[in-house]
Automatic annotation (TrEMBL):
Any one GO MF annotation of this record: monoatomic cation transmembrane transporter activity
Keyword set includes Transmembrane helix: yes
Cellular component, GO annotation: plasma membrane
Membrane-related topology note: Multi-pass membrane protein
Entry annotated with the keyword Zinc-finger: no
Protein name listed in UniProt: Multicomponent Na+:H+ antiporter subunit E
Location(s), subcellular: Cell membrane
Keywords on record: Cell membrane, Membrane, Transmembrane, Transmembrane helix
């Protein structure tokens, strides 16, 4: 599927989604409500130039379940670590600003990574350089270069998990087989 076809499909899917929201708001489905919703969706696209939503080439459900389970585990561990540091010598907790190079070129994967790391206690996204796909994060506790490297590796692991679960058009070569 070429880029223009993906963009068109993305816009059609977003239009269907917006039409569905419109119908839910009205609470009924009839010809006039659907036609009015289609006009509103077309007007919204024309007025706001809504961006195309990135499409996923393939979703691997078992890997998605693993991503969710690993995120829950990461959330639990980071909560315990931050809680421990908040109670035990909170003034001595050191933090750091860490740059993480991302492999993915998919906006969807980058969104997943940034959301995931921002939801974990002790880590927040400060800046994203979209041209170089570099995340700049604030992480704590970081007392040494080894801990900074560990945090960097954790973000790379999150990205790898998401790339395995959601195969995107930007990251997968066109000749990839469906194993």
């Amino acid at each position: 599927m070429n880029r223009n076809a993906r963009r068109a499909a993305s816009r059609v899917l977003m239009g269907v989604w917006l039409l569905g929201i419109w119908l839910l708001l009205w609470g009924r489905i009839d010809a006039l409500t659907v036609a009015g919703g289609a006009v509103v969706v077309a007007g919204a696209y024309a007025a706001s130039r809504l961006p195309a939503v990135p499409l996923v080439r393939r979703i691997r459900p078992l890997r998605v379940a693993a991503v969710i389970a690993e995120f829950a585990w990461d959330l639990l561990v980071s909560s315990v670590v931050i809680g421990w540091h908040a109670l035990y010598r909170p003034r001595q907790v050191r933090s750091g600003i860490i740059d993480v190079d991302m492999r993915s070129r998919s906006e969807l994967i980058l969104l997943g990574v940034t959301t995931s790391i921002s939801l974990r206690p002790g880590t927040i996204l400060i800046d994203l350089d979209p041209d170089r796909t570099v995340l700049r994060i604030h992480a704590m506790p970081v007392r040494s270069r080894a801990e900074a490297d560990s945090r960097r590796a954790g973000v790379a692991t999150t990205e790898e998990r998401l790339m395995r679960a959601f195969v995107t058009w930007e990251d997968a070569p066109p000749e990839e087989d469906d194993r």
